Amino acid sequence: MALTEEYAEKSFDDETFMEISPADFFYRNRDLAGFNNPTRAIYSAIRELLENSLDACELYGIPPKILLRLSFEGGEKADPSSSTYVLKIMDNGSGIPQEFIPSAFGQILFGSKYKLRQVRGTFGLGGKMAILYGQITTNSTARILSSIGKQEIYEFNLRIDIQSNKPEILGRRVQENADHWHGTIVEFTLDGDYPRAMPKILEYLQQTAMVNPYAEIIFIDPKGRLYRFESVTSKMPAPPKEVLPHPYGCDVETIRRIITVTTCPNMLCFMSRHFHRVGRKIAKNFLDYAGISSDVDPAKLNSDEIVRIVQMMKSFTGFLPPDASCLSPLGTELLEAGIVKELEPEFVSIEQREPSAYSGFPFIIEVGVAYGGNTPPGSGFTLYRFANKIPLLYDEASDLSRRILNEKKDWKRYKIQQDMPIAFFVHVCSTKVPYKTVGKEYISDRPELEKEIRNGMNSVSRKLSRFLSRKISIEHDRRRLNVFNRYLPKIAQFSTDLAPKKRKVPDVNPLLDRLRRYQEEEA
Ligand SMILES: Nc1ncnc2c1ncn2[C@@H]1O[C@H](COP(=O)(O)OP(=O)(O)O)[C@@H](O)[C@H]1O
Ligand SMILES: [Mg+2]
Prior knowledge:
This protein has about 525 residues and is α+β, with helices and mostly antiparallel strands. The protein is about 40% helix and about 20% strand. The longest helix has about 50 residues, at about 445-500. The protein is globular, with a radius of gyration of 30 Å. The chain binds adenosine-5'-diphosphate and magnesium ion. Magnesium ion (MG) binds near residues 51, 121, 126 and 127.
């Protein structure tokens, strides 16, 4: 009764409604993007900025040279227990045209990567989340310097107006760029817990170096320790090309958007101009299948017809699978170089699977296995997960690759034991990596991906198995040779002593040499 009375005082009219901006949304829900506590936030900030720098180099074929510095605010004089840091990153990437600099760093969901091609950035969010976190924890502004290699370097001092989701420019300066430097410098202050984040940050950098062996990355931490990850090759993977949407990945909204921009007067033109790998012949077959006349003006399609086209696109079997030109996988040589550089294993094997697609999005899986060297031993194997050349360090237990690895039970067949120093590597390259969260930490279960990862793991496991068999037999032979080494001379001596006639002790060395040579040939 009391409850009803309480409610009776309320009226629907009293409710307040409001709209919040995307910046406000992510301010309220920053854990969605990996900024939930000071440890995770400092890791995520470094990660997002580094990924932006790598994208800005790689998309233009520039071998990345990136300097990352985290220092205490106040420099040398700062209290070493301080939790306020200055984060600065400098890259030699493409730079940003000056008119876009403020929005690129001051407006959430603004970016240049909303295209169908493989890049690290996806949401137009990461860099801004780092700056926003700095702003709300230290009330600081961000300093951005950038040049696209022309006469000027532009410097902005800005903050994000969270409520309006707009950059607020507090200062702007133009400097002469005598050397035609191109690149970007980002600097801001944020609260964090570096001591706790340090192991993950270093792991992240090491794994980044592994999948970007052509990049030079230098990190200076607040204690002044310098970590240098050198490039071991000047070869870079071919940059990804932008592609049109594949019919299997289209929904009603995609079609509507294309209709608003197309200049095609009829459906035959529409279908063969705006979709990935659809030429006139396939377009004609599809229209016949969908029961739509080739002459219909796309602008005149009504809602039902658009829905029907989308449904028909999903069931039509005559489309070609997406090609992989929009992807930029590492390739076996580069991935091997990266792994060898960071782990120095005794054995490594990499396999790049054939391109495949899920829901119209092409993907390529690269799988590897390493044994020995600095590969950490442990139960259940170390798993290194990468997506579009980004290491994924959190939520491994929920990741598709970990599930596949755990479900694989036939290790005995491969002569593999779970406590051996073995690491598996899974690299997912796609125009749309099926992450489960905007924090980009783990890959969701997709049967198409699962099949490729599983087959890749089986294939590299077989190669590892062959290596282990040989290793075991070489080890066995070595032990045998040791026994011979030790006992043959003694046996020769004893037999001579026992012989009825006095003889010279036979020389066993030629026999041992023969055994040694035989073993070397085997190895
Ligand atoms: N270091 C950089 N060099 C060049 N462009 C950059 C750099 N950092 C950010 N940008 C630009 O700013 C945009 C927004 O970055 P970000 O907020 O991290 O989102 P995303 O990387 O998902 O697009 C990028 O799309 C890119 O165009
Ligand atoms: Mg980004």
